[in-house]
Amino acid sequence: MGLIYALAAYLSWGLVVPVHFRLLDAIPPGTILAQRIAWSALLVTGLIALLRKRLANPFPLRPRHGLLVVSAGLIAINWMLYLVAVSSGHMLDASLGYFINPLVSVALGALVLGERLRPVQTVAVAIVVAGVVVAVAMAGRLPLLSLGLAVTFALYGLVRKLVAVDGTVGFCAETFLLLPAAVAYLVFAAPPVPDDARTWGLLALTGVTTALPLIWFAAAATRLTLATLGLMQYIAPSCLLGLSTLVYGETLTPDRVVLFGLIWLALVLYAYDAIRHERRRRAALPAARTAPLAGERR
Fold it and tell me: Could you count the other beta carbons within 10 Å of the beta carbon of residue 47?
């Protein structure tokens, strides 16, 4: 199930979400951010009531529950950076950020959680490192927007894995932590929103396109290693890369061509190693089950 949740989240982020927010490019990013928080809070409240989920009693607070404050702040920053990239016609910068993000996730998994990579996986990660370095060198500039997206979302994934709460409940907590600031902005600082059904319909749908992928991602994060989760994240930026160039006419520069090729080479190696490891694990199960019986005969 972890793989299914991850695929649903990444395909949504790579195809559905950018098209949705591009349709709202006349609305300032800050207003969209506040609106999506408010609509997400409404949606997730109804979802919890429908599923009859109950929020666990937070008192006394456990240390890991406090990390939801951190994850809420991280995802709000990530949302804002993404909205700025999409609304300003820099989808390729967003794509590059989410290409770099899995590398940061893998590094955090090794440094913080002690996850180990097999030799072929290490080679795959090294190829990704080389691709990022070459792309940055060819571009001649440090992609601050891309790096901001990469680091904030990798840290968000780490925090949600450490918290290890139900995806829907965790997202509900994050949304309500952000809700007071969002409502205050909409009431006192946000510019007027055009009063037409299309605009308000698209704004209302931000609750759906915000909440569901994050809930799916949180569910995947508790079931998969950060290394696997991190490398699967290349699905979303690959979709975003194709969308930005084929649909919205952004220019695919040589540095991104090199990066794209090296990343997919790394993904092929990683997938091959994962399939081989899974086959070996399954082949070892029958032997492990019969080993005690053999010992009893002796």
Answer: 17
